[in-house]
Design brief:
The protein is built from seven helices and seven strands. It has 211 residues and is α/β, with parallel strands linked by helices.
């Protein structure tokens, strides 16, 4: 995570695509947000998605968690009133049944133990609460090949810049496997946009905790 600490100060200068993802993500799940909802952004980075949310609804109770202390430092300066924590998605420091909505945008592929992350999300979600995941996901050989090449290129570029392997161990997951994983933890699909022809576009899926 020290590598993300190194890039935190100029991270926002390269977030044009992520900004598009954030705005479209919010549009995708906005109908499921009520006033005073408690929302957690996992792998929140410098807090850009939460900033978009608070600009739209000042009543929201916003939380962000990220492994990078420098990313969290930047987020704290950007948004007043939100609570930011340095921590891991695999061990969320929150009580059971706490959040109305959890969002993970563009980071799910980075998690080493994805099922543990899903288990933790299910634990801290309220019953009937929602989990939103935006991720590039590949369901055939060609898509997996392209995805792995993109990860390799990204990490090689980071190494050349002296940042090391920023996303070491990152792996994409197929939509089918993601749905199977969430179903095992009482998270059912409420809404999905998973067009398979969009090779490098994020797939949007909203799950609901049923029990």
């Amino acid at each position: 995570m020290s590598n993300y600490n190194k890039i935190a100060k100029f991270y926002d200068y390269f977030q044009y695509y992520c900004s598009w993802v954030h705005k479209n993500s919010i549009q995708f799940f906005s109908d499921y947000i009520e006033n005073n909802s408690k929302i957690l952004d996992i792998a929140c980075g410098t807090g850009n998605l939460l900033k978009e949310l608070i600009n739209k609804n000042k009543t929201l109770k916003l939380y962000g968690i990220d492994e990078s202390s420098e990313m969290i430092r930047c987020a704290c300066k950007k948004i007043r009133g939100a609570k930011f924590i340095v921590g891991q998605a695999e061990k969320l420091p929150f009580q059971n049944n706490y959040f109305d909505l959890i969002v993970v945008t563009g980071a799910f592929y980075c998690f080493q133990n994805k099922e543990v992350v899903i288990t933790e999300c299910q634990r801290v979600l309220k019953t009937n609460g929602h989990l939103f995941i935006a991720t590039v996901a590949f369901d055939n050989f060609f898509q997996r090949l392209v995805g792995n090449l993109c990860i390799k290129f990204s990490n090689n570029f980071s190494i050349i810049c002296g940042l090391g392997n920023v996303d070491e161990g990152a792996r994409y997951i197929s939509i089918k496997n993601l749905k199977n994983m969430t179903e095992r933890h009482n998270l059912s699909v409420t809404k999905a946009d998973t067009k398979y022809y969009q090779i490098l576009s994020n797939k949007f899926i909203l799950f609901q905790k049923t029990a």
